[in-house]
Inverse folding.
C-alpha cells in the first residue's frame, strides 16, 4: 500500500489526506476527486437528498454502508411536516440499507464518532456545517449542501478544492477553570468569524486533550469559516484508533498563516450576542440575569461536560428564576450519566432533561426562547434568533460557566477549581 | 447564449444569500414557477425584470455569505445569468453555484474595472471580456469546471458520464 502513496513531502494534514485519497499529490488550490468514507444526512435535509438521488441520479447508492441518516435535528418530531420527513428518511434508509440512527440515538456528529464511522484519514461529508467535528480524530470532515451529499452517495466520491492551511499552535498549560470551549472561542476571537474561509485549520499542541475536548475545538472550526479543522493525531487519547503512518504534520509543510495561543494566559470566556467571535472574559458580563441555561449540543453535550456540571451542582439547587435544560448528546452519554449517578445529581439540583438530539440549538423545539430572554448555552452559535425570538440573547460558554450561571441565576464563574479529566 | 451584448450588473462587497433571494420569497413560500422574479428584490428591485440571458454579475468580497440555501443561486440560474465575477466567494455558496452550473470567476482586479451597465462581449471558454477597444482577461475556470459547465452543471455531467470531470485527465 505504502509503495503506491503519492509524494507527500512538505504537505499539511489536509493536503496529505486529500493526496492519499485521490491517489496523486495535491496541494492548496488544486482540485481533487476523492472517495467519501461517510456521507451523513440529517433529518431535515434527507427529503432533498432522497429526491436528488431518485430523480436525478437514477436511484443509485454506491455503498449504502457509507451513508448514514440521523434523526436528530427535531427529535422526536414536533409537528406533522417534520414527522412526515422523518418517516420518509426512516423508510428510505431501511429499504436501501443505509445506516439509520433514529429518534433518541443522539446528535449526528456524536453518533458517528461513537459508532466508529469517523476515523483518522477518512473523508466525511455531512449535511450540517459542524461536520468539522470529525477533525477531532483527524478525519477530513466538512459540511455540504443536499446536491453534493446526494452526488457523494450516488458516486461514492466528491470533488474538493484543496484548502490552504492555517496552523494554530497551542502553547503552555491551561490554568484554573479554562475549558476546551474557552480555548476554541479564543481561537475564533483571534482568527475572526471569516478569518479561515476556504482554509483548513490545523491544531498543534492538543495532544494531551481528551477526545471530547478535541471534538469541542474541531466543532467550532467552522465558526471561523474553516472548511475543516484537523487536530494533529497522536498521544494517549488516540490509542483506540489506528493512525495511518502517513498521517502526520510535516515539519516542512506550507502554512498560509500561523496563530499562537498562550494557554497560560487564558481565562473562562463567553461569546456575547450576536457573533461567535464576540468573545470576552466572563467577568465582563458577570451578574447578567439569565432565564435559561442550556447544556448540550455537538459542542458540549458529552459525559465529561455533564460531570463538570454535576461537580458544580452537587447538593445544590438551580436558581429559582432560571431553567436549567440538559440534553445529552447521545443515548450512550445519557446511559453513562445514569449509570454513574451524574443524572441523579443533576436531577436533584433541578435540571430538566430532554431526549438526546439537537434540542433548542437552532430554535425549533424543546426550549425556544421568548422575546427579552437571556440564555447561556454550551452550543456554538449565538446569532440573532438562533434559539427562538430575535429579541432573545444567547451567550456561548463552557459547561462550567453554564452550570455556575444556573446556580447563581446570573452569569457567573465557578466558585472553586474544577478537575478536568 | 450569445457572446455579445451582455450587460454588467455591478454589486458591492458582502452580498449575502438574503440579498440574492430573501427568505420570504423561497420557492416553498411563493412557488417554484416564479420565485426567481424576486432575485435581489430588496437590493435591486428592477433586476429580475430587466436581466437578460447571458448578463454578468460583478461583486466584491465574500459573495454569497450566509445561508446554504440552494434556491438563491437557483433563482439566478432560472434567470439564465451568464456568470458571476467577484473578488471572493463564500464557500458553501460557491459550491452551490458550481453544482447548478453557474460560471464563477474569482478576480482581484476585473471587478474594479467593470462598471454598472457596461455592454460587453464575453467568451466563457477563454475568460476574455471585451468592452469597446478594451479587453480584460479572467483566469479561465479550471479544466474540471469547464468540462462540467459544458454539460450544464456538475450534476448533469455526472448523470451523463457517471464520473467527475477530474477523473478524466489523470
Ligand atoms: S447540536 Fe446544534 S450545531 Fe450541533 S448538529 Fe445539532 S443543530 Fe447543528
Amino acid at each position: 500500500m505504502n509503495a503506491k502513496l503519492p509524494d507527500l513531502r512538505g504537505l499539511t494534514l489536509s493536503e496529505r489526506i486529500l493526496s492519499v485519497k485521490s491517489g496523486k499529490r495535491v496541494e492548496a488550490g488544486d482540485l481533487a476527486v476523492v472517495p467519501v468514507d461517510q456521507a451523513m444526512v440529517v433529518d431535515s435535509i434527507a427529503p432533498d437528498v432522497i429526491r436528488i438521488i431518485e430523480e436525478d441520479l437514477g436511484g443509485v447508492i454506491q455503498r449504502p454502508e457509507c451513508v448514514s441518516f440521523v434523526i436528530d435535528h427535531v427529535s422526536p418530531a414536533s409537528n406533522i411536516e417534520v414527522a412526515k420527513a422523518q418517516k420518509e428518511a426512516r423508510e428510505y434508509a431501511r429499504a436501501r440499507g443505509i445506516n439509520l440512527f433514529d429518534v433518541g440515538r443522539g446528535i449526528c456528529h456524536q453518533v458517528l464518532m461513537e459508532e466508529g464511522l469517523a476515523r483518522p484519514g477518512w473523508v466525511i461529508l455531512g449535511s450540517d456545517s459542524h461536520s468539522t467535528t470529525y477533525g477531532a480524530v483527524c478525519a477530513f470532515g466538512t459540511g455540504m449542501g443536499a446536491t453534493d451529499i446526494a452526488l457523494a452517495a450516488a458516486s461514492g466520491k466528491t470533488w474538493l478544492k484543496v484548502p490552504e492551511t492555517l496552523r494554530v499552535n497551542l502553547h503552555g498549560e491551561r490554568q484554573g477553570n479554562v475549558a476546551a470551549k474557552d480555548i476554541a472561542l479564543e481561537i475564533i476571537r483571534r482568527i475572526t468569524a471569516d478569518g479561515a474561509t476556504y482554509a483548513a485549520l490545523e491544531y498543534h499542541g492538543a495532544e494531551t486533550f481528551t477526545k471530547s475536548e478535541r471534538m469541542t475545538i474541531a466543532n467550532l472550526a467552522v465558526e471561523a469559516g474553516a472548511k475543516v479543522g484537523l487536530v494533529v493525531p497522536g498521544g494517549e487519547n488516540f490509542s483506540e484508533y489506528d493512525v495511518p503512518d502517513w498521517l502526520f504534520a510535516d515539519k516542512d509543510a506550507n502554512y498560509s498563516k500561523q496563530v499562537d495561543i498562550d494557554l497560560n494566559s487564558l481565562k473562562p470566556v463567553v461569546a456575547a450576542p450576536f457573533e461567535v467571535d464576540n468573545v470576552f472574559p466572563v467577568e465582563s458580563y458577570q451578574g447578567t440575569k439569565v432565564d435559561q441555561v442550556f447544556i448540550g449540543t455537538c459542542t458540549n453535550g458529552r459525559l465529561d461536560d455533564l460531570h463538570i456540571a454535576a461537580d458544580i451542582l452537587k447538593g445544590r439547587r438551580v436558581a429559582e428564576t432560571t431553567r436549567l435544560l440538559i440534553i445529552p448528546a447521545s443515548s450512550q452519554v445519557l446511559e453513562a450519566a445514569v449509570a454513574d449517578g451524574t443524572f441523579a445529581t443533576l436531577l436533584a439540583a433541578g435540571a430538566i432533561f430532554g431526549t438526546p438530539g439537537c434540542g433548542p440549538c437552532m430554535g425549533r423545539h424543546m426550549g425556544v426562547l421568548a422575546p427579552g430572554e437571556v440564555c447561556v448555552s454550551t452550543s456554538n452559535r449565538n446569532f440573532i434568533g438562533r434559539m427562538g425570538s430575535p429579541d432573545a440573547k444567547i451567550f456561548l460558554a463552557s459547561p462550567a460557566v453554564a452550570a455556575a450561571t444556573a446556580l447563581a441565576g446570573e452569569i457567573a464563574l465557578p466558585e472553586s477549581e474544577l478537575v478536568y479529566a | 447564449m450569445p457572446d455579445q451584448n451582455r450587460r454588467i450588473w455591478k454589486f458591492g462587497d458582502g452580498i449575502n444569500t438574503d440579498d440574492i433571494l430573501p427568505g420570504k420569497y423561497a420557492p416553498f413560500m411563493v412557488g417554484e414557477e416564479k420565485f426567481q422574479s424576486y432575485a435581489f428584490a430588496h437590493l435591486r428591485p428592477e433586476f429580475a425584470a430587466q436581466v437578460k440571458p447571458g448578463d454578468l454579475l460583478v461583486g466584491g468580497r465574500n459573495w454569497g455569505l450566509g445561508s446554504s440555501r440552494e434556491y438563491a443561486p437557483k433563482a439566478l440560474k432560472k434567470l439564465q445569468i451568464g456568470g458571476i465575477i467577484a473578488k471572493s466567494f463564500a464557500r458553501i455558496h460557491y459550491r452551490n453555484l458550481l453544482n447548478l452550473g453557474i460560471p464563477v470567476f474569482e478576480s482581484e482586479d476585473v471587478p474594479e474595472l467593470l462598471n454598472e451597465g457596461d455592454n460587453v462581449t464575453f467568451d466563457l471558454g477563454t475568460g476574455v471580456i471585451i468592452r469597446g477597444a478594451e479587453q480584460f482577461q479572467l483566469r479561465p475556470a479550471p479544466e474540471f469546471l469547464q468540462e462540467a459547465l459544458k454539460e450544464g452543471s456538475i450534476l448533469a455531467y455526472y448523470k451523463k458520464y457517471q464520473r467527475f470531470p477530474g477523473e478524466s485527465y489523470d
About this structure: Chain B has a mean pLDDT of 89. The beta strands of chain B are 6-10, 56-58, 83-86, 104-106, 119-123, 128-131, 134-137. Residues A 73, 107-108, 128, 130, 297-298, 358, 361-362, 379-380 surround iron/sulfur cluster (CB under 6 Å). Chain B has one domain: 3-139.
